[in-house]
Write a structure and sequence with these properties.
about 150 residues; mainly beta; 8-stranded mixed β-sheet; 8 strands; about 50% strand
């Protein structure tokens, strides 16, 4: 991340860019006050396909990664349909900034599972809306909402 006016590097995003080849460049969704941004990168070459979002916030004259757990939806370990299913894709995308301290994201997971009785493969998905709320001290909390059948 380069400051346009000075050319100074404000943040190295390399470690959080999961893309390869032409997918190596991610995208950023800035908060209205420009003190935070959600960085999205994707890897469509490996299974499961992934879209990853990492949130950064200003710290002094640079940006630091916000401490967020966006990969483990609450209750997922108790979801019996997911047990023994293969993940086809795992997408976490920023949707919008509700305000400077509230980010709305979407997590879309797609799975495939073999039905032993028929030998058929059954595909299904889980869609979550994630609301991340930042406090003035930079700490954040996330609330998850499982969307209706998708």
């Amino acid at each position: 991340l380069i400051e346009k006016a000075t050319g100074q590097a404000l943040c190295d995003l390399t470690g959080d860019d999961i893309g390869a080849g032409g997918d190596r460049e991610g995208s950023a969704l800035w908060s209205p006050d420009s003190k935070r941004f959600a960085y999205q990168s994707d890897d469509s070459t490996h299974i499961p396909q992934k879209i990853q979002t990492t949130v950064y916030q200003v710290s002094g004259k640079s940006f630091v990664k916000a401490d967020l757990a966006l990969n483990q939806p609450p209750g997922q370990e108790k979801d019996s349909e997911i047990a023994r299913a293969a993940m086809g894709h795992d997408f976490i995308t920023p949707t919008r900034w509700k305000n400077s301290n509230t980010l709305i994201l979407e997590k879309h997971d797609y799975y495939e599972k073999l039905t032993p009785s028929s030998g058929e493969i059954h595909g299904f998905a889980r869609l979550y809306e994630i609301t991340v709320s930042f406090k003035e001290d930079g700490t954040a909390s996330a609330s998850w909402k499982l969307q209706a059948d998708h």
